Structures are given as structure tokens and as C-alpha cells.
């Protein structure tokens, strides 16, 4: 991606802070003066900062937007995130400044649930480890039980967060793999109304019960002040000995040092992680090399189809919101603060 600006003083300005497909960029350029500058790239930082003072709209993802940036952007009306998670945005500051936040719920739900289920399979059946066993030439005779995995079908799945992705994950587990599902969420879901196909197959339980009864626990809830560090020394200790932990949410919901201790003490048999406290995962993180960790580079929604759908939805959101119309992906905080 190159830093680009198409100057024309009278047009309203939009700042694109992460790569956008050409088609979406063209839609923006047809109506707005567009600067493309990703502040995570040193070569783009100056252009990003120079664009803030005139920007009315911003679109992108994976960049923490700070109050200091908002201070530099007095004309900003809309931020359109190419993500469903909104933990990169200072929600209270946006609210108090009257800046609209949009996101991309729904279009990535099924793909992210696929990724989380893939991590469940990979961690339980040791798929990555055993594929490397073949690739590295260690398959010289039939494997013995030291390399056996664990069944997935029929095991109890605990889901932390039972919204769009949690319910899509439950469908895969309950309907495809005959797994009883326990879930922990801020409130009980009316399954008969929202997911009738899961009636009788999922149960809402307090966190402690989900942790102590599930064979596999998968986190798919947002990162908020209430969920930061949710999985820590005490909560890992409540999990079944030999259980598997999967994180498809955000890295910071987990105390990574406590996770490593839980793996090394034998509390956890394995962990499957798509997200990390620091991304990309630092080279010296012990999670990179741990034999019982399957680590992915935050690919929950990373398919061609889904990333295109997210970019298209985020672009529509931005154009609508800047036109003063109601965008499909308006981020609205629920009745309870996050
Ligand atoms: N790994 C990846 O690439 C991806 C990760 N995600 C993460 O997944 C999250 C969930 O996405 P959706 O299912 O679309 O969201 P959603 O809003 O539909 O569902 C969130 C669920 O979490 C629950 N929840 C929220 N705060 C809670 C708390 N303090 N305690 C217990 N439960 C709580 C809610 O009650 C709800 O059941 C996103 O916020 C994002 O962080 C989303 C997409 C891709
Ligand atoms: O949408 C999100 O929140 C992601 O993590 C990436 O798709």
C-alpha cells in the first residue's frame, strides 16, 4: 500500500487507515478526498497525522484509535471499523464528542465460528503437531499412543459469550458433533426465539459451572473492562484437569502467563489461540514454541470472501453515516455498559 492523497480543497475528506480493496476505495474516491495511510507503517505515519485535522470520516481496522488522535481530528464525524470487535476505539470519548462508530457484525460470524471449530479440532486431535511430524520426516513407523489425540464428538463444549459467533459455534458443535453445550454470557438467550435449532441442546450456566464441567472451553466474547483478564490463574484452576482452552475472542481476555502455567502444570491438555495480548505475537513469546499450543495469526475472519464482505459493509457504513443516513452496522452499546 502506498501513501496517497488526491488533493482538491472543496471536497470532504476521508482517511483510510488500513488497506481497502480497490473497488471500495473507488467508491470512496468518487465522493470524497481520500488519504490512505496506515500509521502502523513508519512510512505512512506523517501522512496519517497530516490527514487527521481535516478528516470527516475514517475507515480501517487493527489500529488503536486514541483520544490524542481524536484531539487532532476536530471535524471527525464517523469512524467505520472493518471489524466487529470495537476494543480499539475509545468508546466514551467517541460518545462525548458525538462521533458515530460503525462496525461489521454478522458478515464474519460463520467464518469466525469455522476458525474456532478448526482450532477445537486441531488442538484436540493434535493436527498441526502431527502434520509437522510427517513433514519433518519423523513418520518412520506406526504412531503409538504417545501421539494419540482426544475425541471431539460427544464432549461437552463450554462457550464464553453466546452472541452471533457463540451461537454459530454452538450449531457446529451441537448439531454436527453431538456435543452438549454450556454457555456463559451476560444474559440468558431466548433459544426458542433466537436459535430454535439449538433448543434442548444448550444451557446457560454461571461461569464457574461452565469452566468446571466443560471438556473444551472456547472464548468468543468482546474485550471490555469486564472481560479483560477473565481467564487467569483462578479461572484456569477451575477448569477440568486435562481440558482444552480455545481463544477466538481477543488476547487480553487471557492472562498469558497464567495460561502457560495451566498448560505446564497439566491443568490444561492443550490450547488453541487465534488472538494474543500483543499482535503479531512477539518472537520471544513462549506461546510460539509451546508443544501443546496451536497458535494462529488472528485469522478468525481471514478468508477472501469474508474480508471482502467486511470491507464492503464498512464502506457502505461510512458512506451512509457521512450522508446523514442510518448505517446497517451502526455500533450501539446495549442497555448495560460494556
Ligand atoms: N478471532 C477473530 O478474528 C475474531 C474475533 N472476534 C471477537 O468475537 C467477539 C464476539 O463477536 P460477536 O459474537 O459478533 O458479538 P456479539 O455481541 O454478538 O456477542 C457477544 C457475546 O458476549 C457476551 N458478553 C459480553 N460481555 C460479557 C461479559 N462481561 N461476560 C460474559 N459475557 C459477555 C454477550 O452477552 C454476547 O453473548 C468480538 O467482539 C471480537 O472481539 C470477532 C470476529 C473475528
Ligand atoms: O472483526 C473482528 O473483530 C476481528 O477480530 C477480525 O475479523
From TrEMBL:
Residues 117-300 form the D-isomer specific 2-hydroxyacid dehydrogenase NAD-binding domain. The keyword Oxidoreductase applies. Signal peptide: none annotated. Pfam families: 2-Hacid_dh, 2-Hacid_dh_C. Gene3D superfamilies: NAD(P)-binding Rossmann-like Domain. Residues 14-328 form the D-isomer specific 2-hydroxyacid dehydrogenase catalytic domain. Keywords: Oxidoreductase. It comes from the Bacteria. InterPro entries: D-isomer_2-hydroxyacid_DH (IPR050223), D-isomer_2_OHA_DH_cat_dom (IPR006139), D-isomer_DH_CS (IPR029753), D-isomer_DH_NAD-bd (IPR006140), NAD(P)-bd_dom_sf (IPR036291). Belongs to the D-isomer specific 2-hydroxyacid dehydrogenase family. This is D-glycerate dehydrogenase. It comes from Curvibacter microcysteis. The lineage of its organism: Bacteria, Pseudomonadati, Pseudomonadota, Betaproteobacteria, Burkholderiales.
Amino acid at each position: 500500500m502506498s501513501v496517497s492523497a488526491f488533493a482538491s480543497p472543496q471536497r470532504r475528506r476521508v482517511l483510510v487507515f488500513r488497506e481497502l480493496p480497490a473497488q471500495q476505495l473507488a467508491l470512496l474516491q468518487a465522493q470524497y478526498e481520500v488519504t490512505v495511510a496506515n500509521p502502523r507503517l513508519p512510512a505512512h505515519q506523517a501522512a496519517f497525522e497530516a490527514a487527521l485535522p481535516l478528516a470527516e470520516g475514517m475507515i480501517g481496522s487493527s489500529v488503536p484509535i486514541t483520544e490524542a488522535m481524536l484531539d487532532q481530528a476536530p471535524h471527525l464525524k464517523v469512524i467505520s471499523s472493518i471489524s466487529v470487535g470495537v476494543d480499539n476505539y475509545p468508546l466514551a470519548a467517541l460518545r462525548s464528542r458525538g462521533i458515530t462508530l460503525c462496525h461489521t457484525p454478522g458478515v464474519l460470524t460463520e467464518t469466525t465460528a469455522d476458525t474456532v471449530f478448526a482450532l477445537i479440532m486441531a488442538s484436540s486431535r493434535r493436527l498441526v503437531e502431527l502434520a509437522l511430524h510427517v513433514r519433518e520426516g519423523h513418520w518412520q513407523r506406526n504412531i503409538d499412543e504417545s501421539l494419540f489425540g482426544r475425541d471431539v464428538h460427544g464432549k461437552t463444549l463450554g462457550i464464553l459469550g453466546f452472541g452471533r459467533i457463540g451461537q454459530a459455534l454452538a450449531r457446529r458443535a451441537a448439531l454436527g458433533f453431538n456435543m452438549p453445550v454450556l454457555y456463559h454470557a451476560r444474559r440468558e438467550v431466548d433459544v426458542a426465539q433466537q436459535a430454535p435449532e439449538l433448543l434442548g441442546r444448550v444451557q446457560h450456566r454461571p461461569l464457574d459451572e461452565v469452566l468446571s464441567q466443560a471438556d473444551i472451553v472456547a472464548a468468543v466474547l468482546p474485550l471490555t473492562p469486564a472481560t479483560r483478564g477473565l481467564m487467569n490463574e483462578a479461572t484456569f484452576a477451575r477448569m477440568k484437569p486435562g481440558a482444552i482452552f480455545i481463544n477466538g475472542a481477543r488476547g487480553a481476555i487471557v492472562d498469558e502467563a497464567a495460561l502457560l502455567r495451566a498448560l505446564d502444570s497439566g491443568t490444561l491438555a492443550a490450547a488453541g489461540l487465534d488472538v494474543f495480548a500483543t499482535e503479531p505475537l512477539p518472537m520471544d513469546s513462549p506461546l510460539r514454541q509451546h508443544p501443546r499450543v496451536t497458535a494462529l495469526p488472528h485469522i478468525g475472519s481471514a478468508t477472501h470472501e469474508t474480508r471482502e464482505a467486511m470491507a464492503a459493509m464498512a464502506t457502505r457504513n461510512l458512506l451512509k453515516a457521512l450522508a446523514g443516513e442510518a448505517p446497517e452496522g451502526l455500533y450501539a452499546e446495549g442497555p448495560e455498559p460494556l
